[in-house]
Amino acid sequence: QVQLVESGGGLVQPEGSLRLSCVASGTIFKINDMGWYRQAPGKQRELAATITSGGSTSYVDSVKGRFTISRDNAKNTVYLQMNSLKPEDTAVYYCNAEIIRSRYFNPRQYWGQGTQVTVSS
Q1: Model confidence at 29, in pLDDT bands (50, 70, 90)?
Q2: Averaged over 8-21, what is the pLDDT?
Q3: Angle at 9 between CA 7 and CA 14, to 5 degrees
């Protein structure tokens, strides 16, 4: 069994900052790409940022220069540092990871339960 658990969401004023964390636990042989998706009310879920096991990152244009994704492979954890937050960043943020449970298993996508981020004055 593998579980992803997010933390760090909340209410923040515009131009404020938040740091999201996501820990993967359970039977894990290897974690490939990790990422953060977000879904705003009435909109489709979109990819915000991704990071490979080697540390290469990519971002959706709307968060470039404001968000930073990082990971600690020893702790099976991925982070999303969000600065200069805007009301349009308001969404439920979901952690995603491609995980191999053992050398006998194929990679599989896992999702966290989501954490609410609200940017409002």
Answers
A1: very high
A2: 98
A3: 155
User: CA-CA distance, 66 to 78, in Å (whole number)?
Assistant: 17
What is the C-alpha to C-alpha distance for residues 17 and 32, in angstroms, rounded to an integer? 27
Average pLDDT, the chain: 97
Residue 2 has phi, psi (to 5 degrees) of: -125, 140
For 74, list phi and psi in degrees, rounded to 5: -65, -25
Q: What is the mean pLDDT of the segment spanning 17-43?
A: 97
